[in-house]
UniProtKB/TrEMBL annotation:
One of its GO terms (cellular component) is periplasmic space. The keyword Signal applies. This is Maltose operon protein MalM. Keywords: Signal. InterPro entries: MalM. Residues 1-24 form the signal peptide. Pfam families: MalM. GO terms for biological process: carbohydrate transport. The keyword Signal applies.
Length: 333
């Protein structure tokens, strides 16, 4: 039965009948993708629908404003703490207010999983929004503040706002960019948190006392923790383009509203735009990453995963993934 299945897969490939599967995000992030890839619980109590509406659109940022920012390099291992205060970079543009954090992430290490926490201290919290840019500083994904939900304290964690971003950089890029900021609308809101006595009673299984929960005020400053790691699975949002095409609208996560994208010309300092419809050369380490993943999936009998990896690799321009798939399938027969 197994040999028959492998033969069918091989025949389908050779006949070029395999349907294409795109991992690039559409204009609207699908709710089923979010449910499977992102785990968030406990919505911030007093961040109402008015704030969600106010922050539902991508901010329009000029190229000159983006070029003035200092983009801090960020590795794909460990957790980094960021203190936003009066000495941090500031951006007051449109609805954006106060301290910001700007990061440059490697784009040649496969899909990225980014966990962003904003810690609640002294009943105050920085309510984050995240705008993701490709290598040419084109906006590609937008995470409004209501995407980052309140998390109760645990044994090793404190009260916080948390969100998980899953991104897949297109091949041929060296880096993508992450801008974290808050807005004037967010500063008018607050987050209801759990009373410490309630949290303790819930943790030890005691009766939960009937006492009011405190409110955390949203501020222009705060403390963030950022954990970035590479992952083998396909990401949630495709960052950047493989083929030259009109600038797409950024995918908005946490909202079903279609977002209008600002038109931003790639800066000369970091622009690597392609003027032809050909695929950018595949980086050797990224191509090897997909080839190894395909062989490993087949060796474990996970043909479905191998096919998805193959499709993603070819979608991003790999010239060797199909040959690796066919060769590995034949060796298993």
């Amino acid at each position: 039965m197994k040999k028959k299945l492998l033969s069918l897969c091989l025949s389908a490939l050779l006949c070029n009948m395999m349907p294409a599967v795109s991992y690039a995000a559409s204009d609207v992030a699908r709710s089923d993708t979010m449910a499977s890839d992102i785990t968030i619980t406990h919505k911030a109590g007093s961040s109402g629908s008015s704030i969600e509406t106010a922050n539902a659109t991508t901010p329009t940022l000029s190229l000159s404003a983006l070029q003035k920012l200092q983009w801090q390099p960020l590795n794909t291992h460990g957790t980094q703490s960021i203190i936003l205060n009066r000495t941090s970079q500031q951006l007051n543009d449109g609805n954006i207010r106060g301290a910001i954090a700007a990061f440059a992430l490697p784009a040649n290490q496969g899909s990225l999983e980014i966990t962003l926490n904003s810690l609640i201290k002294d009943k105050q919290v920085f309510s984050p929004n995240v705008l993701v840019f490709d290598e040419q500083l084109h906006p590609a994904a937008f995470y409004p503040s209501h995407y980052f939900r309140y998390q109760q304290p645990g044994i090793m964690s404190t009260d916080r706002l948390e969100g998980v971003l899953k991104l897949t950089p297109a091949l041929g890029q060296q880096r993508i960019y992450l801008l974290i900021y808050t807005t004037h609308s967010d500063l008018q809101a607050s987050t209801q948190i759990i009373d410490p006595a309630k949290a303790y009673a819930e943790g030890v299984g005691n009766s939960i006392p009937n006492i009011p929960d405190p409110i955390a005020r949203h501020t222009e400053t705060g403390t963030l923790t950022l954990t970035v790691k590479s992952e083998r699975d396909a990401g949630n949002i495709m960052i950047g383009q493989v083929f030259s095409a009109p600038t797409p609208k950024p995918a908005t996560v946490g909202s079903t509203q279609v977002i209008s994208a600002p038109v931003i010309t790639a800066p000369t300092a970091i622009s690597h735009s392609s003027t032809s419809s050909t695929v950018k050369p595949v980086l050797n380490d990224t191509e090897q990453y997909f080839n190894d993943a395909i062989k490993e999936a087949i060796s474990h009998g996970d043909i479905d995963k191998a096919l998805k990896l193959l499709d993603e690799a070819e979608h991003l321009g790999s010239p060797t993934a199909r040959g690796i798939f066919i060769k590995t399938i034949k060796s298993k027969k």
